[in-house]
Amino acid sequence: MSLKHILGLDHVVVTVSDLDASARQWERLGFTVSPRGTHSPILGTGNYTIIFGEDYLELLGVLTETDQNKPTRDYLKNREGLERAAFTTDDAAAGAAELKSGGLEALGPVHFGRPVDLPNGGTGEAKFNVFRWPLTESPGGLRIFACQHLTRETVWLPELQKHANGASRIVRVEVLAADPKASAGHLSRLIDEPARAQDDGWLVPSGGKRADFLFYDAAGFARRYPDAVRIGAAPAGATAIVLASADLDGAVKALGSLAVRHGSAVSVPADSANGVIVSFVP
């Protein structure tokens, strides 16, 4: 099936136990973190965002238990980390219909929002329509969904897009899998993008000029990152976010003692970023 309404990676969700503490930690990594947001009651979650040019990172925590956030609560019983990846959709209802026409029972679309503190001192609202692939369709353990932004101007605020570490976009989301080829093929089928072999794994583009997904096994993971970086990473599932930085020296300065140089990259150990390796490349 051809997914006309999926436009590439929109953002990744790092699920955390202590939302406010995680925001302080990611600020320590040289990121500009948004004010805290509280989602509509149906979701029962709150977040902080780290905004880049066309994509972003979301730190997500559960504030009130609801049916909608049960999968997130189940995830947190085992670990913090990169729980989900969201794709941009230009029409959530049409995107959900596309999945259904291909034999997948899409969940949604669901409409929700959150208040946003604006630079002029006022308050706006970020509004979204989202749909999810079935929970059983989680390539390499990574859940996926699609997000339609109804008010992009309240999310991509210019003052939130400048970071001391120079980060400007998501280059790659990396997933540790027992069978990287099969997991990459799974995602390929779900988003209708081709999987191809790489030296240390299998790559699936998310669409357009957005980030790629790389699936590797334990040996590939160890070749890519030294022991000092892999500390605190989960034994399976999404392990790393790779970001483009216009200033690697600035990234090293911003990261301080947390910076680990290896090859052409600078990385933060997983145990210093809620279980996620954060890696910066030129």
Number of domains: 2
Roughly what percent helix?
A: 10-25%
Query: Given the structure, what is the number of helices?
Result: 7
Low-confidence stretches: none
Please give the alpha-carbon distance between the first and last residues: 35 Å
The largest sheet has its strands arranged as 2-3-4-1-5-8-7-6
The whole-angstrom Rg is 18 Å
CATH fold-type name of the largest domain:
2,3-Dihydroxybiphenyl 1,2-Dioxygenase, domain 1
**Average pLDDT value?**
95
Written account of the structure:
The protein has 282 residues and is an alpha+beta fold. The protein has 2 domains: 155 residues, 2,3-Dihydroxybiphenyl 1,2-Dioxygenase, domain 1 (Roll), CATH 3.10.180; 115 residues, 2,3-Dihydroxybiphenyl 1,2-Dioxygenase, domain 1. It contains 7 helices and 16 strands. It has an 8-stranded mixed beta sheet with strand order 2-3-4-1-5-8-7-6. The mean pLDDT is 95.
Give the SSE map:
Layout: E1 6-15, H1 19-28, E2 37-38, E3 45-51, E4 56-62, H2 70-76, E5 81-89, H3 92-101, E6 107-117, E7 123-132, E8 143-149, E9 167-176, H4 180-191, E10 196-198, E11 201-205, E12 212-216, H5 218-224, H6 227-230, E13 237-245, H7 248-255, E14 260-262, E15 265-268, E16 277-281
Parallel strand pairs: 1-4, 5-8, 9-12, 13-16
Antiparallel strand pairs: 1-5, 2-3, 3-4, 6-7, 7-8, 9-13, 10-11, 11-12, 14-15, 15-16
